[in-house]
Specification:
96 residues; 0% strand
Length: 96
Amino acid sequence: MPAPLVITLTAEQRRELEALRDQSEKPYLRERAAAILKVAQGMTARQVARQGLLKPRHPDTVYAWIHRWQNQGRAGLVIQAGRGRKPAFSPCADDG
């Protein structure tokens, strides 16, 4: 079994994540920041994924959030433009 992921936060990182968790307009950003803070407090990512959030997540999802945050900071937690399913039908602008 791999060693548990350990996160050590600076005071500034902790403040930033707490502000994101408490004040972000986007619910998904609040959830991701809360997950990272819980792992930093000593919970495993598996525990956070299964029991530590409002909705159970796959542990790999929480690990992905953590790794993106470690590599890109706050920007790594934001859903990038162009993600998701593309429209199956685009109405024609020409009606006639």
